[in-house]
Amino acid sequence: MQVSNLDRQVSAEDLKLVFSSRVGPLKKCTLMYDQSGKSTGTAVIHFVRVGDAAVAYNKFNGVPLDGRPMKIEILLTPTVAQAVLPPAQAPRALTNNNQGQQRNPGHSRGSRGGRGRGRGGRSHGEKRETKTVDQLDAEMNDYMQVDS
């Protein structure tokens, strides 16, 4: 998540204290600096648990820290967004209708063993396993492998 509109005197340690004590454990907290070494008033915070960013947003967006209201934005990769957001809020995949493209004669989509584009997929009737939030968090932690 990104926190902006911070007073220039707010340190990364201040942010760690606020968010880890009132929301949950942090993986990383990075305060941004300009070329002269002064704080830009923006920080990026990575929580251990993906859902904690939403908790932090609900608790602290607009809440003053050292006299300035924090502006919090949740930053998610499209894959994580689809996993944790309700379908109406998750980013939708871009589609390509092949409009304006010409195909080579004699080649059809079914020429790859009946599966079409991509690396394959589930057979008809196969169900995708539904994962819990804890399983998704564990996968994200394994993928990110960021030390605290």
UniProtKB/TrEMBL annotation:
One of its GO terms (biological process) is mRNA export from nucleus. SMART domains: FoP_duplication, RRM. GO terms for molecular function: mRNA binding. GO terms for cellular component: nucleus. Residues 95-105 have a biased composition (Polar residues). Residues 109-122 have a biased composition (Basic residues). Residues 1-77 form the RRM domain. This is RRM domain-containing protein. It comes from Lobosporangium transversale. The lineage of its organism: Eukaryota, Fungi, Fungi incertae sedis, Mucoromycota, Mortierellomycotina.
